[in-house]
Amino acid sequence: MMSVSQAKDVEIKEGSRKVLLSIDDMHVWFELRRFGFGHAGYVKAVDGVTFDVHYKETIAVVGESGCGKSSLMKTILGLYKPTKGTIVFEGKNLSELDEKGMHWYHSHVVGYIQQDPYGALPPFMNIQRILEEPLIVGGIKDKEERIQRIHKAMDEVKLTPVSDFLQKYPHMLSGGQQQRVVIARAMIMEPRFLVADEPVSMLDASVRVEILKLLRGLQETHNLSVIYITHDLSTVSYFSERIFVMYAGNLVEKASVRQVIDTPLHPYTVALLTGTSEPDAKNAETFKELPPGEPPSLVTPPPGCRFHPRCAKAIKGLCEVKSPPDFEPEPGHLVACWLYQ
Amino acid sequence: MNQTNTLLRIEKLVLYFNTLQGPVQAVDEVDFALGTNRAVVILGESGCGKSSLAKAILRLLPRNAGTYSGHIYLKGNDIMALEDEEFRLNIRWASISMVPQAAMNALNPVMRVGDQVAEPAIVHLGVDKVAALSLAKKMFQHVGVPEDFISRYPFELSGGMRQRVAIAMALVTSPDLIILDEPTSALDVLTQANIFNVLKRLKKELGISFILITHDIATSSELADDVAVMYAGQIVEVCDARRFFEEPLHPYSKKLLASVPRLHGDKQPEFITGRPPSLINLPKGCRFADRCPARFEKCVEDPPVVETDDRRVKCWLYS
Fold first, then answer.
1. Which of A27, A56, A177, A233 ranks highest by number of CB atoms within 10 Å?
2. What ipTM does the predicted assembly reach?
3. What are the tens digits of pLDDT across the range B22-51?
4. Which B residues, 237 through 296, put their C-beta within 8 Å of a C-beta on chain A?
5. Quick one: closest CA in B to A269, which residue?
6. Using CA atoms, how far apart are residues A265 and B269, in angstroms rounded to an integer?
7. How far is B80 from chain A (nearest CA, A)?
């Protein structure tokens, strides 16, 4: 097992870039119980997801709520164990790490940026205490060094002058500043990659861009990989290199940002792009063509392609029977749809 | 705007809240007008007073409301002059209704959604329960909720469906005007687009007017006929949507539009440096001056409202 994973890490290269994190046929299922006992099926939150994250790469996972993107993220963070499949970080299979290994993974490998900054910051701790916590947990015993690193992290997220903020509590900061604290906390142990769960969806439009630019800058200076989870396609193009579109537990389209935005292939991606507005007064004059219905239940997803009940282009006798594998109609553009076989 | 077609005209509307630190000037001398069967978008960042403006129009005042003055003319009648009870019976929900912020969580969890939609009809139209329920069914059709959902509870509905129910609730008394406070901010892209399709259809088929309060410039263009930009309690620009999205006048509007990330094109979005002033300690002169790239000496004085070409802008640059 280990040797296979290691081989994967070193050998598999796309372009000239090495693979940092490799996810292979990952399933995350949650068991449903009736009245606390008795099996009542599974919530198939993530159902067979395969992808690689390269060094210094930003990947956006785009999907609607309930499509499984949070479960995917939490499994990558090591908070859930995959039901099936593997997550391999630099040759180390996460499921095989012991407690000490997981501790190392949590405190030195991943950084997590939460969606709601106010909810993510303990209201009874001041900023210094909030930022010191991961350092203490991460095993930095020297108080001087901790303070030094706090100053450095706050400088980097432009919470300056630092001394003005150290003794403040989260409620004294604006939304944008709170999100900066969350980012500083994620960065303070100098992780290898960041998982950002809708980092700007709770912020005002004018602050959003500022935070995204800050993240982009941090990614470049620290050579980080970032997994950016969002439902908003319009912010993706400024921040990511590749987009994965997720629908009902599956990744239905994987391609570069330009490919997805300029030539979307999967009917669901097309619908998402149609649904995303750009400021234009002409929008008010027309109705949008949108797929009917709502995403399926993850307990009993439809057979075959999960999008087929809502898809106008569904092929009778195929789409509702067999679930589509990934096709590659153009180089680097993977799409799980029978239209492109 | 043509006087005869004006549905709602607001003049010098003021709403302050009393706090220990002093009055919060949430709505400060707001003027705008809205025509019949039109939609105006109130755009602004959080904390600029846009939700307070909605509350001021509907007289839904919290206990700490202080100064509350000005005129609101609905079809020519000043509804600010009405007694509270009369306002409650004949204006709120009967003529002007509202879809509150996070409306999908505003539904009563222990009441069937059909009953919740029927309730305003019983109170304001004076119809019996059977008639009100059949009216509710009709509203469900308008907003695209299956009729048999009428006996369901809110938890049995998805977020998008609950939002539609909230719109049905605002619609059931056939008001002239519906105020939408961030109607889609918590919803997914496709659900959001669907809700805007519903709103567009309601506007076209039923001739309803809308005030849409939002910070989301991109989606606001889905419904807007007119745009009013609000900053620190004041309206700084009013303009028709076409010209606004092409070329806004006020420096704040320009910055706001430039901050929108776009799907197509290479233009990088910009952000606005600094943050809006506190509504308790407002700066003298132009309230945007601190963050404004076009600031000059005059900006220390309160800018006049300049009216040109059927658009209004509160800025020294245009006087």
1. A233
2. 0.86
3. 899 999 999 999 999 999 999 998 888 998
4. 241-242, 244-246, 255-257, 259-264, 268-272, 275
5. B190
6. 27
7. 32
